[in-house]
Amino acid sequence: MSHTPRRLHPSTRVAQALGWIDKTTGALVPPIHPSVPYERTADGSFPAGRTYTRDHNPTYDQAEALLANLEQGSAAMLFGSGMAAATTVFETLDIGDHVVAPEEMYWTLRRWLQEMADQGRITLDLVPNGSLVSLERTLLPGATKIVWVETPANPSGAITDIAATAEMAHEVGARVVVDGTIATPVLCRPLEHGADLVMHSATKQLNGHADVLAGALVTAQEDGLWERCRHERACRGAVLGPFESWLLLRGMRTLYLRVCRSAQSAERIAEMLDTQPAVSQVLYPGLPTHPGHDIAVRQMDSGFGMVVSFRLREGASAAHRLAGTLKLFRNATSLGGVESLVEHRAPVEGPGSPVPDDLIRLSIGIEDPNDLIADLEQALVG
Ligand SMILES: Cc1ncc(COP(=O)(O)O)c(C=O)c1O
Hints:
Helix content is 37%, strand content 16%. By secondary structure, the chain is of the alpha/beta class. The strands form 2 sheets. The chain has a 7-stranded mixed β-sheet with strand order 1-7-6-5-4-2-3, with helices on both faces. It has a 5-stranded mixed β-sheet with strand order 8-9-12-11-10. It binds pyridoxal-5'-phosphate.
């Protein structure tokens, strides 16, 4: 399918969606294939190699090929959501297998892992994000099967050294899976740092327009784990619909422009927030004061992502008030869309969340950064 050589800049590859042209019509934009069944010939075979849409819909092919290419992986799979992609990885485990995950991570997945552990389906250890000392103490040779990483983490922006984590995990026979949702392959390609799988909530900046729920896995190698993920996706029907796959590919064509613009604005906004008397701490890996900054500089390029979190000196009620006082930032959950969003985060995650109750999470969109800064300034002094 790929007609575009890898040496072209990734922004060219993504804008042209690998230069695909429809063979029958010459169309530059791919068709949507809604068909569920595929016809057998008289001898009972399927000449096109497709039988049924649950795992064989051709509309997935181009978006999967593009994502694998951007991540420098060998294959990709689309899913009906980021959660469907993430849970598929854990569904490949045997009863009692050991999982290590970070304390700060996408909260619904952390809660689901804790439920799996409570049911005795896995054993689970949560370690402080990025702490190699804690990781080393927690790994169980032969028993630890998955080390889950989320970098930068949502919403704290905590950074994990992927290469060092992969080295330790591989020594005990575990696989490393990185949730790369906030970075996107524009800013970080975890497989290049030794991870085995990358997971994305494609709902976020990959699609970028807040109108598709989608997920993805990308693998370094098409090995046994990958085949088990493929089997799980097909059996559980965790696939993306053909219309959503098509929308995702359309959104991805502008990925570079959106990611670079929002990351540049996010950096300016983080710097501005850092000067505000009402703000006690800014959590953004692009700031030199952030504890993960040096690692982020090494393993990310062209920016640090669209999520900026900060804490308010006057506590939870001030955070609640601020989220409602902003005029341009929409007070809504999610991240990675073209519109900027704000959220007072702790109440969303509920009891047991490590998120401080005075934390505000911003998702920076592609609006003019001066307008966004002016909106924040009026709310912070108000
Ligand atoms: C970092 C991260 N990972 C995974 C997910 C889950 O993705 P989805 O909502 O597509 O299921 C989210 C959703 O917010 C997220 O922010």
